[in-house]
Amino acid sequence: MHHRAQTRRRAAVALALTTTGALLLTGCGGEEKEAAKDPVQEIRAKIPNAQQSAKVLRIGMDVNYPPVEFRGTDGKPDGLDPDIAAALGRILDLRIEYVDTPFDKLIPNLHHKQYDVAMSALSDIRQRRDGVDEAGKSTGLSVDFVDYFIAGTSMVVPKGNPKGIRTLDDLCGKTVAVQSGTTQDEIVTRQVTACTRANKPLTVHKFDTDAKALAEVASGAAQAGLNDFPVAAYAAKTTDGGNRFEVTGAQSRSNPYGIALRKEDSALRDVLAKAIDQLIRSGEYDKILTKWNVAAGAAQNAVVNGGI
């Protein structure tokens, strides 16, 4: 009896250990299954119904700002932003559709729901997030941004820099060309006040495209132009075989480029932030920046409303 009782107890202990082991294995398997979840599928599961049902992400873009966005030889959008947008489309399993829009209409037309987001070298700045103008007056056009790239402002001058322009104060008494509605437009508008105080008025020529502003510098009608650094560097390298322009001085006011969304579209905003993080983790983001020679502007991760 004693021997048989011990045998029964040993069998019970063995069964308990086996059961416990099975439970532990089941638990480990569950954890492994949890860890093995596909992050791309998790992102896709959170895409808002509007984009899920249409299978399209519509992007407002001013396709006239090389190398960030421009029309390739096939007439289709090409450059940094279209490459990033296409990569995001693959992560989200959405077709990307571009709506070519003048830069100063990008945010107003976003509010008129002509597209889902605006992505066009748009600097994430407080005025745009809050929907106010330089005087602090409401425009009613506030937006959220998902930041994905860092860009500063540079000055473009004729090759050889005949006027010796190296700082914003060097623009005083001269003529500068910029694209309307840009960060550079805001910078030079403030510089007008500084130059007026110095009794050396600054003349500003504003254009609806950056190409026209650069043409003004090329013709000699303006002594300098202000551009985002990637655009300035590209123009200096490619125009007339690199013999027309040069970039001068240090970059100023570095700010992130952001994908702009309507404030109420927070679900889409958060999905895009996760998709950008996934793009960065995959290594494809770095490849895209290297392709366009703008790796110095790489972001470490997506940030919502991270601009100054």
Characteristic terms for this protein:
308 residues; alpha/beta; D-Maltodextrin-Binding Protein, domain 2; six-stranded mixed beta sheet; 11 helices; 11 strands; 43% helix
Describe this entry's structure for a reader.
It is a single chain. The protein has 308 residues and is α/β, with parallel strands linked by helices. The protein has 2 domains: 39-151 and 257-304, Periplasmic binding protein-like II (D-Maltodextrin-Binding Protein, domain 2); 153-254, Periplasmic binding protein-like II (D-Maltodextrin-Binding Protein, domain 2, 3-Layer(aba) Sandwich). 43% of the residues lie in helices and 24% in strands. It has helices at 2-35, 39-45, 49-54, 80-92, 106-111, 126-130, 183-197, 210-219, 229-238, 266-282, 284-291; strands spanning 56-61, 70-71, 77-78, 95-100, 117-118, 143-158, 175-179, 203-207, 224-228, 245-262, 298-304. Strands 6, 7, 8, 9, 10 and 11 form a 6-stranded mixed β-sheet that branches. It has a 3-stranded parallel β-sheet with strand order 4-1-5. A two-stranded antiparallel sheet has the order 2-3. Helix 2 packs antiparallel against helix 10, helix 4 (80-92) packs across helix 10 and helix 4 (80-92) packs antiparallel against helix 11 (284-291). The radius of gyration is 27 Å and the shape is globular.
